[in-house]
């Protein structure tokens, strides 16, 4: 077996490493009942306003009032607030994978070097994307990721388009093309949501429904997949049972009782498999994969996606040190104060050929593009 350590292209690092003034320039889009703001640094969402049950506009995503703070965050907390993550979202065990007869090693950046998280030490969240299109209701950012950067083979070109429409909907579409080599591609968005806009310090009393999420990907103490897949339904004594959201229930019924989220954790930090035929319908006709209703604002978010998994994280690592935005009050982000929803394919699937997910994990110049779409509809009750 050949071994390839592709850590070259050092001359390009400075281009990616620091967000300049263009990288933190905010851009807004809007439609009736919804408006959103973005910055090129990480192609990230920095605010999203929709109306609550009292017709009051609420900013339902976490972030910072000062766009420059996102750069500081990457160097300290590294929350990935609102960003696109890649080239390979989530974790790669030991930062190692094999394509053909070549073993690749990418930088490890979590758990003392035991795995790679969200593409390595400088993933897509820490790059200045290029603004390539912008009108009143849509914005597109593009990124050319050169071969060898962060150890990944092959050059990859990615376009991410955010669109808002009425009735209130945010649509994300990410299209990635491998230009010259076979390479892992699995992107996602990393938006932290609080549909109550912090009227309460946690989301534990909100209601969550995952109608297709019959199974989860089992993980070990450092959140790497073991290869096993577990039902969230049976048996009754199964530790997976708190994660059964196939019928609507309050988030605290899962988050306060599940310990399948890594060593010493109580909460949700899991990849839920969406057990349904892949790509079975068009975007408008697709059945909702997730529905979430805020107990405070009455806002319901309904998510549709073409991805085969949802990684959910109930913000168990937040500890009251990051302030909420001024529009959300004067408090801080507490434990269970938010929910991260990452539409994506099966995590670390490149290291689990037994899952049969290779065609959704590895792409070459003769492959179709890797396409992620997700729509978020907002209503009130």
Q: How does this structure look, described?
A:
With 381 residues, this protein is mostly beta strands. It has a single domain, classed as Distorted Sandwich (Beta-galactosidase, Chain A, domain 5). Helices cover 4% and strands 37% of the residues. It contains 3 helices and 27 strands. The protein has helices at 13-17, 68-75, 252-255, and strands spanning 2-4, 27-31, 34-39, 44-51, 57-59, 83-85, 91-93, 96-99, 102-105, 115-117, 130-134, 138-145, 156-165, 169-178, 183-184, 188-193, 207-209, 215-219, 225-231, 249-250, 269-273, 290-293, 299-305, 309-313, 339-344, 362-363, 370-380. The strands form 6 sheets. It has a 9-stranded antiparallel beta sheet. A 7-stranded antiparallel beta sheet has the order 6-16-25-24-21-18-19, with no helix packed on it. A hairpin with a 3-residue loop joins strand 11 (130-134) and strand 12 (138-145). The longest helix is centred in the first third of the chain and has 8 residues, at 68-75. 47% of the residues are buried. Mean pLDDT is 92; it is low at 1-18.
Q: State the strand order across the main sheet.
A: 11-12-13-14-27-23-22-17-20
The fold-level CATH name is: Beta-galactosidase, Chain A, domain 5
CATH top level is Mainly Beta
Beginning-to-end CA distance, first to last residue: 59 Å
CATH architecture identity: Distorted Sandwich
User: Helix- and strand-based class?
Assistant: mainly beta
What series of H and E elements makes up the topology?
EHEEEEHEEEEEEEEEEEEEEEHEEEEEEE
Largest sheet report: 9 strands, antiparallel
Low-confidence stretches: 1-18
Cα shape = globular
Proportion of β residues?
35-45%
Taking all Cα atoms into account, the compactness measure Rg is 20 Å
Q: What is the total domain count?
A: 1
Estimate the mean pLDDT confidence.
92
Bin the helical content.
under 10%
Number of H- or I-type helical stretches: 3
Number of strands: 27
């Amino acid at each position: 077996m050949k071994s390839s350590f592709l850590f070259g292209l050092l001359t390009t690092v400075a281009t990616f490493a620091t967000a300049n003034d263009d990288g933190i320039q905010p851009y807004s889009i809007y439609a009736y009942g919804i408006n959103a703001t973005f910055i090129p640094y990480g192609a990230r969402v920095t605010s999203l306003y929709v109306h609550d049950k009292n017709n009051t506009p609420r900013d339902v995503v976490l972030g910072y009032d000062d766009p420059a703070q996102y750069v500081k965050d990457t160097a300290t907390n590294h929350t990935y607030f609102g960003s696109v993550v890649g080239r390979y979202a989530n974790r790669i065990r030991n930062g190692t994978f094999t394509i053909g007869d070549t073993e690749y090693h990418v930088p490890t950046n979590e758990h003392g070097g035991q795995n790679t998280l969200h593409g390595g030490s400088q993933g897509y969240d820490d790059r200045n994307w290029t603004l390539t299109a912008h009108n009143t209701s849509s914005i597109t950012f593009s990124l050319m990721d050169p071969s060898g950067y962060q150890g990944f083979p092959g050059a990859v070109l990615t376009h991410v388009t955010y669109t808002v429409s009425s009735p209130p909907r945010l649509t994300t579409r990410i299209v990635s093309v491998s230009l010259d080599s076979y390479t892992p591609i699995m992107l996602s968005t990393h938006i932290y949501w609080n549909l109550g806009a912090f009227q309460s310090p946690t989301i534990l009393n909100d209601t969550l429904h995952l109608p297709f999420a019959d199974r989860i990907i089992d993980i070990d103490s450092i959140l790497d997949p073991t290869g096993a897949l577990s039902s969230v339904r049976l048996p009754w004594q199964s530790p997976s049972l708190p994660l059964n959201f196939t019928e609507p229930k309050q988030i605290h019924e899962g988050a306060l009782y599940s310990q399948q989220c890594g060593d010493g954790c109580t909460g949700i930090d899991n990849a839920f498999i969406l057990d349904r035929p892949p790509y079975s319908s068009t975007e408008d006709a697709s059945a909702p994969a997730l529905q979430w209703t805020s107990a405070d604002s009455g806002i319901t978010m309904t998510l549709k996606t073409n991805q085969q998994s949802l990684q959910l994280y109930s913000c168990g690592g937040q500890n009251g040190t990051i302030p909420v935005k001024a529009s959300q009050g004067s408090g801080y982000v507490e434990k269970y104060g938010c929910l991260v929803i990452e539409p994506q394919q099966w995590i670390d699937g490149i290291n689990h050929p037994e899952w049969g997910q290779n065609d959704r994990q590895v792409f070459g110049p003769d492959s179709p593009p890797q396409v992620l779409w997700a729509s978020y509809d907002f209503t009130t009750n």
